[in-house]
């Protein structure tokens, strides 16, 4: 993908400000007109021909008559917010893989390649002492292992997860169901500022968007989409955490759960998830070992110290989720066997490949 210019980026912003234009309709516009700027300036009849319903066309027309692109871009910059679009190399790779990735992310702080290693932690807003203790213990250990913690900045488990990650010196990402200038809940504004200094707060909602209840299910798909797996600590069956785990399952991501008392309503969701096959977590090592994240710090250092070259790229193209024997990799790459073996070792150090035994390799 080619990185979009600032000029093109603002048109991505403007199109996604139209409530009726979600990810699917946005992609159709991009395919039809070739760029967001062309779609923004397209005649009404052509927008309708591209598949936009009448309300969406009317809303877009109204927005064009009231918003100046240059002024809107300046407003975003003055707010200390950066814009990352789906075409940017900096867009989170894991999020790009979901079925409906948000075309635009508003970010305070910095997204990092380190966030390739991320776990989402979610749960009730009314956490018990047990829930708080478990969250702080597990998250602290996971964060110290170099894994980014993703959550939703809500009261309760989310807040404890963010704070534990920061206290451990780790990275954490907070996903909002509002604009970045409308932090919710208000008492977590200082926490949001802390997160932005050593991680990022982000949202798909434009500046000024209030924390409306309908926004949070959309927010939840981003929470799970940014992570390799979602951990539920405490939550009842009607909790928003249920929605997050449903998104995680649909996205093909693992779901973990901390068991709790059968007498506590706040353990009803994790206990049910365990009955349905979620992985039981009683210690951070349960997560790190299951997801092969026990050496994240070393893998990250190796990835930074050993930049990719054409040989590594050639072998990575041949690797997939299905095991491939080293002899097949040698034949497919047409490289000397010694070069293939040495390069596979480097890819393992970088966390990009994994040996399953019997000289069989998969892409990590």
The helix content, as a percent range, equals 40-55%
Report strand %.
5-15%
CATH fold assignment of the largest domain: Rossmann fold
- Largest β sheet strand count, sense and barrel closure: 9 strands, mixed
Output the strand order for the largest sheet: 1-2-6-5-4-3-7-8-9
CATH class of the largest domain: Alpha Beta
Radius of gyration: 22 Å
Helix/sheet category: alpha/beta
Oligomer: single chain
Look at the structure and give the mean pLDDT: 91
Number of helices: 18
Intertermini distance: 22 Å
Any idea how many domains?
A: 3
The low-confidence runs, each spanning 5 or more residues with pLDDT under 50, are none
How many DSSP E strands? 12
Helix-strand blueprint:
Elements: H1 6-16, H2 23-33, H3 36-41, H4 44-49, H5 54-66, H6 69-78, E1 82-85, H7 93-96, E2 104-109, E3 118-122, H8 129-144, E4 148-151, H9 157-167, E5 172-175, H10 189-198, E6 200-203, H11 215-225, E7 229-232, H12 240-250, E8 254-257, H13 268-275, E9 279-280, H14 284-290, H15 296-305, H16 310-318, E10 324-325, H17 326-333, H18 337-349, E11 353-357, E12 360-363
């Amino acid at each position: 993908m080619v990185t979009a210019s600032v000029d093109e980026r603002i048109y991505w912003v403007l199109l996604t400000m139209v409530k009726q234009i979600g990810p699917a309709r946005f992609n159709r516009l991009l395919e039809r007109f070739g760029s967001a700027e062309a779609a923004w300036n397209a005649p009404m009849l052509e927008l309708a021909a591209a598949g936009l319903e009448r309300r969406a066309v009317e809303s877009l027309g109204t927005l064009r008559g009231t918003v100046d692109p240059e002024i809107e871009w300046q407003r975003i910059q003055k707010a200390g917010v950066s814009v990352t679009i789906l075409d940017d190399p900096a867009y989170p790779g894991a999020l790009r893989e979901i079925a409906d990735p948000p075309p635009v992310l508003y970010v305070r702080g910095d997204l990092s390649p380190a966030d390739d290693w991320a776990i989402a932690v979610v749960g009730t807003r009314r956490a018990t002492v047990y829930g708080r203790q478990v969250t702080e213990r597990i998250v602290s250990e996971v964060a110290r292992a170099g894994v980014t913690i993703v959550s939703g900045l809500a009261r309760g488990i989310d807040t404890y997860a963010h704070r534990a990650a920061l206290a451990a010196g780790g990275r954490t990402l907070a996903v909002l169901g509002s604009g970045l200038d409308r932090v919710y809940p208000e008492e977590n504004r200082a926490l949001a500022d802390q997160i932005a200094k050593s991680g990022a707060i982000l949202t798909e909602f434009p500046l000024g968007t209030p924390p409306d209840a309908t926004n949070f299910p959309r927010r939840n798909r981003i929470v799970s989409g940014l992570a390799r797996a979602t951990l539920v600590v405490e939550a009842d069956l009607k909790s928003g955490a249920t929605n997050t785990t449903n998104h995680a399952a649909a996205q093909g991501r693992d779901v973990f759960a901390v068991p709790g008392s059968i007498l506590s309503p706040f353990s009803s969701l994790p206990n049910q998830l365990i009955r349905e096959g979620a992985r039981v977590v009683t210690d951070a090592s349960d997560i790190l070992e299951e997801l092969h994240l026990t050496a994240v710090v070393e893998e990250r250092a190796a990835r930074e110290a050993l930049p990719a070259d054409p040989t590594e790229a050639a072998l990575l193209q041949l690797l997939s989720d299905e095991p491939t024997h080293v002899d097949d990799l040698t034949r497919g790459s047409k490289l000397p066997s010694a070069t293939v073996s040495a390069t596979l070792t480097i890819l393992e150090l970088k966390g990009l490949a994994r040996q399953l035994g019997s000289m069989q390799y998969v892409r990590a």
